Amino acid sequence: MSNLARFLNTVDGQPRESYSGRWIASLDPFTGKAWAEVPQCGADDAAAAVEAAHRAFTRGPWATLTATARGKLLRRLADLIARDAEKLAETEVRDNGKLLAEMAAQLRYVPEWFHYFGGLADKIEGGVIPSDKADMFTYTRREPLGVVVAITPWNSPLLLLTWKLAPALAAGNTVVIKPSEFTSCSTLALMDLVKEAGFPDGVVNTVTGYGAEVGAALVEHPLVAKVAFTGGDATGAAVYAQAARHIKHVTLELGGKSPNIIFDDANMDDAVKGAISGIFAASGQTCIAGSRLLVQRSVYEEVSQRVVAVAATARLGNPMERTTQVGPITTQPQRDKVLGFIDIAKGEGARCLLGGGTPKDPALAGGWFVEPTIFGDVLNTMRIAREEVFGPVLSIIPFEDEDEAVEIANDTIFGLASGVWTKDMRRAFKMAERIRSGTVWVNTYRAVSFLAPFGGFKKSGIGRESGQAAIDEYLQTKCVWINLAEGIPDPFIIR
Ligand code: NDP
């Protein structure tokens, strides 16, 4: 037995290793060394978790719990997460290398989703339908879907899980969670709080392991009604195709190539800060990264120089230290992918204005770091402007006027988010209307809330998370017809 910390799955309320007895090491991105282990599950473990979730959905206390009682459980879970936020954040940082400052703030905010959806649980209402037929009473019920599989990525494991778990439970579903194999520990730690909150056994289950093995087995399972997925577009498309074969419900959040647009009338201090935080927060590993900085040509040189000057001051370091501003990349394959994109950009003729490699500081040698990197004179046709890099790499692209800004902004397969920096409110409203993305920020960037629907246009995804729209993704409508008249005159023509 290894001396690493071990985190177990929870299936049917019980702690579980995998049937095979195998483990996956969880690596610390700052040291590159293993710090914990999680069970390496297979299709048999996946099936056991789905069956437990299905049992909990169809019988047992959850199936008959009132919506008000469900809401109370969610709110109790919110309070427990708030209590343990620091501890959960530290676990996430060991796993994904993001800044403790950011993860702790994120974990303190996560309870709001459970409070919000806990409050919504008993406000899910059907309706009475006006009838065009005499003596007929027609009404609708809003019902849960059944077993929901939540597949989550490594960049913000608990936040992105919460966006699925809170509405799924509020609507009355049961859940099987498949976290990324790279960052499973905080999800497994959360399960202790789910138990402490008093959720009945089997309502929330976890299965850790490799996506192609255990993830695919979950999506394939006939008792699964819905898959809620966040990750890359290639895996998202595979999950969508697999779910389609069984006509399952799907929501997909698949990242983007978001334009962050600076007009020459913007408050330049704010716009430069927005550009920096848009791309370098979380070392660029966010679906909403403002990876294409579109700058009006009249201020292009000035903005480029100022963004480079600020980015050059970034303090790279141990993500656990509060003074660190840029941490490592979460996984070694992702670090290699980011470095590969930097080479591609150089080969395409983009001008490297900053960074472009790994840092030379020996104190960072064990971690998977990439220097904050900025390319100027990028054409929107280059791969660096078209594909999601998911790292601290910014492409600066010039434009002449509003029309050209819109054309470049929308010339992408993605449509998750965008930013507009201007003092002209007419322009702000017009741009918000013309840009094809699920979120538009004006004179800010990265704002998200439990109250605000979030999701993608085009290849950035299907469905919405957060806000009232999110609960609809976990419900289906049943229409009930009650004939109040007696006597059916003709058995061959029933109305
Ligand atoms: P993936 O999309 O492959 O991973 C996301 C989740 O899907 C993980 O839990 C993964 O498990 C799981 N998974 C993988 N294959 C399958 C499958 N066949 N069936 C079901 N589930 C599966 O992301 P990667 O880690 O490969 O990252 C690739 C790129 O995706 C990144 O470079 C980035 O561009 C993008 N990305 C976008 C995110 C976003 O927030 N929208 C988040 C993360 C990545 P496992 O990790 O165990 O393989």
Summarize the structure.
38% of the residues lie in helices and 20% in strands. The chain has 495 residues and is an alpha/beta fold.
Name its key features.
495 residues, alpha/beta, Aldehyde Dehydrogenase, Chain A, domain 1, Aldehyde Dehydrogenase, Chain A, domain 2, 2 domains, seven-stranded mixed beta sheet, six-stranded mixed beta sheet, 17 helices, 21 strands, binds NADPH dihydro-nicotinamide-adenine-dinucleotide phosphate
Explain the layout of strands and helices:
Elements: E1 5-6, E2 9-11, E3 14-16, E4 23-28, E5 33-39, H1 43-58, H2 61-64, H3 67-83, H4 85-96, H5 100-109, H6 111-120, E6 128-129, E7 136-144, E8 147-151, H7 157-170, E9 174-178, H8 185-197, E10 204-206, H9 211-220, E11 224-230, H10 233-245, E12 249-253, E13 259-262, H11 268-280, E14 292-296, H12 300-311, H13 332-348, E15 351-354, E16 373-376, H14 383-386, E17 393-399, H15 402-410, E18 417-421, H16 425-434, E19 439-442, E20 461-462, H17 467-472, E21 475-483
Parallel strand pairs: 1-5, 8-9, 8-11, 9-10, 11-12, 13-14, 13-18, 14-17, 16-17, 18-19
Antiparallel strand pairs: 2-3, 4-5, 6-7, 7-21, 12-20, 15-16
Helix pairs in contact: 1-9, 3-6, 3-8, 4-5, 4-8, 6-7, 11-12
The structure holds NADPH dihydro-nicotinamide-adenine-dinucleotide phosphate.
